[in-house]
């Protein structure tokens, strides 16, 4: 398994903390910038990552009406990041508008367009929460699959799903649909707020293209040791 298939989130509150994490883990090639860091410190971190030749997953999870999604995605497309997220529940029209706008934004500044990923259902939600809190009358794996199919029909490049649903999505959506899994937990790590986890080896075996692994590495007493342990456990996967 190539360590390049592990994406580590920069879930910190400032650019300075993000830079410190980059320095602690120079072997990580793919970083995720999410809401906490982006809202705190803006797009400057993207330039820093690019200057270090890192790959970037911009995980801002846009969810709005088609016109607003298009505007946000056109702007985000100009950053030249590798991956970008929207919510599938924004609907087919908004998903298609987002996909097109990313292409337009990227073309306007001559960068490669980000691959757009649709969030199927957040990995922090359980089947029980889906049924009782969100009142969705579908089994969770079926709901995740329906959201992935909606996104695929609308023309995006892939989806974000939990490792527990990835095998079914891979089988139905095919090998060319990118599947990225957060909610991945080594056997020795705490689950935290993640509700539908598998281990890194299980998630890859089930068909994930990329794994997002955050706190088991970044909140470890020694992040470098945690990273090495995960990579060692994946040898031969
Ligand atoms: O459904 C989703 C979508 C995105 N995420 C993000 O992934 C990381 C997971 O971090 P951990 O520390 O490994 O739990 C985090 O940045 C989330 O915003 C997700 O967990 N689930």
UniProtKB/TrEMBL annotation:
Task: Return the Pfam families for the record.
Answer: OMPdecase (PF00215)
Recorded GO molecular functions are: orotidine-5'-phosphate decarboxylase activity
Q: Where does substrate bind?
A: 11, 32, 59-68, 123, 185, 194, 214-215
Q: Which reaction does it catalyse?
A: orotidine 5'-phosphate + H(+) = UMP + CO2
> Which residues constitute the catalytic centre?
59, 61, 64
Point out the coiled-coil segments of this chain: none
**CDD domains, alphabetized:** OMP_decarboxylase_like (cd04725)
All residue ranges annotated as the Orotidine 5'-phosphate decarboxylase domain in the record: 5-230
The record's Gene3D superfamilies line, in alphabetical order, gives:
Aldolase class I
Keyword annotations for this protein, in alphabetical order, are:
Decarboxylase, Lyase, Pyrimidine biosynthesis
Give GO BP annotations, semicolon-separated: 'de novo' pyrimidine nucleobase biosynthetic process; 'de novo' UMP biosynthetic process
- Documented EC number(s): 4.1.1.23
Xref: PROSITE patterns:
OMPDECASE
According to UniProt, this protein's pathway is: Pyrimidine metabolism; UMP biosynthesis via de novo pathway; UMP from orotate: step 2/2
Which SUPFAM superfamilies does the record match to this protein? Answer: Ribulose-phoshate binding barrel
Domain of life where this protein originates: Bacteria
Q: Which family does it belong to?
A: Belongs to the OMP decarboxylase family. Type 1 subfamily.
| Function (record text) | Catalyzes the decarboxylation of orotidine 5'-monophosphate (OMP) to uridine 5'-monophosphate (UMP).
> PANTHER family of this UniProt entry?
OROTIDINE 5'-PHOSPHATE DECARBOXYLASE
Self-association or partners: how does it assemble?
Homodimer.
Q: What is this protein called?
A: Orotidine 5'-phosphate decarboxylase
> From which organism does this entry originate?
Gloeocapsopsis dulcis AAB1 = 1H9
Q: Which gene encodes it?
A: pyrF
């Amino acid at each position: 398994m190539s360590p390049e298939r592990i994406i580590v989130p920069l879930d910190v509150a400032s650019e300075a903390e993000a830079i410190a994490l980059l320095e602690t883990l120079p072997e990580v090639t793919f970083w995720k910038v999410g809401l906490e860091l982006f809202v705190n410190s803006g797009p400057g971190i993207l330039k820093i990552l690019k200057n270090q030749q890192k790959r970037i997953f911009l995980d801002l999870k846009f969810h709005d009406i088609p016109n607003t999604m298009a505007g946000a995605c056109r702007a985000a497309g100009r950053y030249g990041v590798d991956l970008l997220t929207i919510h599938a529940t924004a609907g087919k029209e908004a998903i298609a508008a987002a996909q097109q706008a990313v292409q337009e934004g990227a073309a306007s500044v001559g960068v490669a367009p980000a691959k757009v990923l649709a969030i199927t259902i957040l990995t922090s939600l359980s089947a029980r929460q889906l049924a009782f809190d969100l009142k969705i009358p579908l089994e969770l794996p079926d709901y995740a699959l329906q959201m992935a199919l909606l996104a695929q029909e609308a023309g995006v490049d892939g989806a974000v799903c939990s490792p527990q649903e990835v095998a079914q999505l891979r089988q139905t959506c095919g090998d060319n649909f990118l599947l990225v899994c957060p909610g991945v937990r080594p056997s020795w790590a705490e689950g935290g707020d993640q509700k539908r986890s598998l281990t890194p080896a299980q998630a890859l075996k089930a068909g994930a293209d990329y794994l997002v692994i955050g706190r088991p590495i970044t909140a470890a007493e020694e992040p470098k040791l945690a990273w090495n342990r995960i990579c060692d456990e994946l040898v031969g996967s």
